[in-house]
Every structure is written in C-alpha cells, then in structure tokens.
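To the team - zinc ion complex, inputs and output below.
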Amino acid sequence: MSNLDHPPHVNPYWAGFTGSCPRCGKGKMFNGLLRIADKCDACGLDYSFADTGDGPAIFVMMIAGFLIVGVAAWVEIVYQPPYWVHAAIFLPFSAAVCIGMLRPTKGLLVALQYYNRAEEGRRIK
Ligand SMILES: [Zn+2]
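Output:
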C-alpha cells in the first residue's frame, strides 16, 4: 500500500457490504462466495494484505446467535410448538442468516483493514 492511496475516497462500509474494492469501489473483492480475489479487476489492488482470520465468523456467530435464539425463544413462549417445528424452522433459518451475513461481514473487515492500514506492527526507521 502506498501513501498515495490514503485516505481512499470509497466509503469502507459501503465497499465492504457490497463486496467492492475498498480503493476504487468498482472492482470486485470476492472471487466466489467467500474467497478473496487475488487483486481488484478494475484498479489492480493486491488483496494479499487481507487477512481477516476468524473475525467474520465471530461477529456472525454473536449477532446471528442473539437473533436466532431470541426468535426461537419468542416462538417457544408464544406458540409452544413441538421440537420438530423448531428444527424445521430454525435450522434452515440459522443457515440462511449465517451464510447471508458472512460475505458482507468479511468484506467489511477487509475494507476496514485497508482503510485503517491495519497490519502487523513494525519499527519506524
Ligand atoms: Zn479496485
């Protein structure tokens, strides 16, 4: 990353949620559902800096867990359905919510990593 790139004119939140390049906003960040592309196809930004690790999964587990358990508890309290109804509703609901949230969350973390120049610390010479 060079100093000429910063601060980028692209909103990192928008770039992350839409999966577009955090530098130019035009190219795609993803190559597939969750795989980060090697570089931006519009401006050539090298995505080798992108290392979100387990960050997206943790955020998705916390948010989706709160949402799904809350809705399941509400359904149980109000309707008291048999357990197979809970399984039939909340297993696919859980999968859809988690998979649906993973890509924008990963994109957001990569875009914020680029925007904030998050990288390993090093000595200033
Ligand atoms: Zn780009």
